[in-house]
Amino acid sequence: MIKLYLLTKQIHRLILYVTVLLIAFMSVTGLILKYPTLSIHYLPFLDLGLIRYIHNEFSLYFIAVLFVMAVTGIFMYVFPLINSRSKN
């Protein structure tokens, strides 16, 4: 059971880094979409349709990564409770 906990902890840490990268990417594309007049004025080479498509596609991966992070986090939270009861 401890090996499963350690594996979950490693997966959670790896997913944390992926989540941080996806948050940064989703934030940048979201800001570009929220303020299209500024992005057109300062970044005329960007295609807003492509940015919207990329933002929508990456949102599915973002949700999947957040789900895996939540499941591993819940397991790491519950594990000490389960482990302490099994020792008694």
What is the structure about, briefly put?
Helix content is about 90%, strand content about 0%.
Structural class, by secondary structure, is mainly alpha
Order of helices and strands: HHH
Biggest sheet descriptor: none
Q: Uncertain regions: pLDDT < 50 for 5+ in a row?
A: none
Query: Beta-strand percentage?
Result: under 5%
Distance between the termini: 16 Å
Overall geometry? rod-shaped
Average pLDDT confidence is 90
Fill in the keyword field for this structure:
88 residues, rod-shaped, mainly alpha
3D structure, described in words:
The chain is an all-alpha fold. It has a domain at 50-88. Helix content is 91%, strand content 0%. Helix 1 (2-34) runs antiparallel to helix 3 (48-87). It starts with a helix and ends with a helix. The mean pLDDT is 90.
Layout of SSEs?
Blueprint: H1 2-34, H2 36-42, H3 48-87
Helix pairs in contact: 1-3
